[in-house]
Specification:
This protein is an alpha+beta fold. The chain has 13 helices and 31 strands. The protein has a seven-stranded antiparallel beta sheet with strand order 6-14-11-18-9-8-7. Strand 22, helix 11 and strand 23 form a beta-alpha-beta unit.
Length: 584
């Protein structure tokens, strides 16, 4: 009797603490009388509870129920479909059942509600440049690799959080570099079969010559870091053996949790290599998603083989903010080296991210572009370079229309509409010389960040256009007021401001650009223009806005063209070009 009173008091204390915790965390009250909702007060994802453990307890007792396991909480919920089932389950488990590995029994409480979903955002989206290949080796090969390592010889060392071993070059943790003048034992021949697999999934023009092997016990990890830029080439490969774990990636406020199964190969290149930190949080269990919801997955002993290619000299990446060899100073000059990175980040990636919203806001054809299309001859082949969502690829049934664009997501939208489209860069069109009757390039060339690249794009139009074929080009004009008349871009602004002071942004390429304030006059020819996506999210697109006379001058430098007409159309400079006859 005394023992029962002690259990009852302990049970009441557990329920009372759970009541205050739940009210604080989720504004949900506990209830004295039975409801359809039960809270398990002392077991959740944070305590290492696995969804399957709880299911094995409940399944023999109740047929229909739902489990809700909030992230980062030491409690969870059972949602029943009748109060009778809830009362029955409560009486069978409260203070009576222990979970394996737990000293105390489960304590339960009735609640007025449960969270609708497993709480908090959960992202396992891959950062750009990250790829995971599962089951890249067999279980036999995994055992061979694990058994090939001796952790007791002089070549291995103990760090604070793990054991580590190096081949090829020793990684110096004090400086995060290697000494190229002091090579060590080369990568063993037994590991060379991995090179064939690497080439199959990520072919690079070099062989990896530095290997770091890490040995992690459950509860051990590695702090977040970005591998030093100047020391190693772009690609870094990590082969996971033994146990799965979660690797956390972060870039500024964006986070991603990536599950690395045993025998999987993680490939880090580009953004993921140079701009995202990666690390393994020191814990015994990882929270993972399953088809039935979030659960925990215990860690075992994990061994990772990380392959790198050493290099010397300054880094040539486009991520100066994270680079060890970039100068602290920035520039306003966009050179050819910075141009590719700038356009990748502020044109190509942005249009892929805003493609659906872009499609919803781009329907009406511009009248003068439609007029150009109507002027073409029956049966002409029209190429729309940078076709976007394909708004110029319908109607005008007297011509055959094809489109191309650099955005994969926009191409999918066009494909779903039934248009004939290709994924292509406007600097390298995948068409034969003299094969197209007419071309339009509407609001494309102003996304190229150097005059050389803009000239190259126009030269490509001339290359694929047949002799006497015509080309229409539209670019955004710096002048948004013509003959004292404002364009619609300015008119529709909530308040047109004079002498706007733009915020400067130092891009990842080391180039400082002004951020334009929408619906105002342009203050610079090169700038970042905001796009606010429906449903949330702000993005910056790079633009070079053309000054009067700049577009025809650029076109005149392409010898294959004759300028037929130049005009201004609602904030755009426009030119119609005709390709010269070939000289026999």
């Amino acid at each position: 009797m005394v023992m029962e009173e002690k259990i009852s008091k302990k049970s009441h204390r557990k329920q009372k603490r759970a009541h205050y915790r739940l009210l604080r965390d989720m504004n949900i009250n506990c209830c004295d009388n039975p409801t359809k909702y039960i809270m398990i007060c002392n077991a959740g994802l944070v305590t290492g509870l696995q969804r399957e453990m709880l299911q094995r307890i409940i399944d023999p007792l109740i047929n229909k129920y739902d489990l809700v396991m909030p992230l980062n909480k030491s409690y969870c919920f059972i949602k029943l479909y009748s109060i009778e089932d809830a009362a029955c389950l409560y009486n069978k488990i409260h203070g009576l059942i222990k979970i394996k590995g737990q000293n105390t029994p489960l304590y339960a409480a009735f609640t007025e509600a449960v969270p609708e979903l497993d709480c908090e955002d959960w992202s396992n989206d891959f950062p750009p440049g990250l790829k995971l290949i599962e089951n890249i080796i067999t279980e036999e090969e995994e055992k061979m690799l694990i058994n090939s390592i001796s952790w007791s010889n002089e070549e291995s060392c103990d760090l604070k959080h793990r054991k580590v071993k190096h081949f090829g070059y020793e990684f110096q943790y004090g400086s995060n570099k290697v000494d190229l003048d002091k090579p060590i034992t080369p990568i063993p021949e037994d590991y060379k079969f991995l090179n064939v697999l690497f080439e199959k999934y990520h072919n690079v023009p070099y062989e990896y010559d530095q290997l770091t092997i890490n040995h992690y016990l459950p509860g051990q990890g590695i702090p977040p870091h970005i591998d030093t830029h100047s020391v190693f080439e772009d690609s870094i490969l990590s082969l996971s053996l033994g146990s799965a774990c979660i690797m956390d990636f972060k870039r500024e406020h964006i986070k991603a949790a990536i599950l690395l199964p045993p025998r999987s190969l993680l490939i880090m290149s580009g953004d993921a290599r140079y701009a995202w930190s990666h690390g393994i949080y020191p814990r015994h269990n990882d929270m993972v998603k399953t088809p039935t919801g979030v659960t925990t997955q215990p860690r075992g002993i994990r061994i990772s083989f990380t392959f790198r290619k050493v290099r010397s000299g300054n880094c040539l990446c486009n991520f100066p903010k994270y680079c060890d060899t970039k100068q602290d100073g920035t520039t306003t000059i966009i050179d050819n080296k910075a141009a590719t990175g700038l356009e990748n980040l502020y044109v190509h990636e942005v249009y892929d991210q805003i493609s659906n919203h872009f499609d919803q806001t781009r329907h009406k054809q511009w009248p003068n572009v439609s007029k150009f299309l109507q002027s073409l001859n029956m049966g002409d082949i029209l190429l729309d370079v940078g076709c976007g969502n394909g708004k110029y690829l319908y109607e005008e049934e007297h011509i055959f229309k094809i489109g191309c664009d650099r955005s994969q997501n926009l191409m999918k939208i066009c494909y779903d509409k039934g248009f004939e489209v290709f994924l292509s860069d406007c600097l390298y069109l995948p068409y034969r010389d003299d094969s197209i009757d007419a071309i339009i390039s509407i609001a494309v060339i102003h996304h190229l960040s150097t005059s050389e690249r803009r000239r190259q794009a126009i030269s490509e139009l001339g290359r694929v256009l047949r002799p006497n074929g015509k080309c229409l080009i539209y670019v955004w004009a710096k002048e948004q007021e013509k003959d004292s008349v404002q364009t619609a871009y300015l008119k529709y602004g909530s308040s047109v401001k004079e002498n706007v002071v733009c915020t400067q942004k130092i891009t990842e390429c080391g180039v400082s650009l002004p951020i334009h304030e929408n619906r105002t006059n342009f203050t610079s020819t090169d700038m970042l223009v905001p796009w606010k996506r429906k449903g949330g999210g702000n993005f910056l697109r790079y633009y070079h806005v053309f000054e009067e006379g700049e577009l025809p001058k650029l076109c005149s430098e392409v010898s294959s063209f004759i300028i037929e007409n130049i005009y201004y159309d609602q904030g755009n400079w426009c030119v119609i070009l005709q390709k010269k006859d070939k000289i026999n």
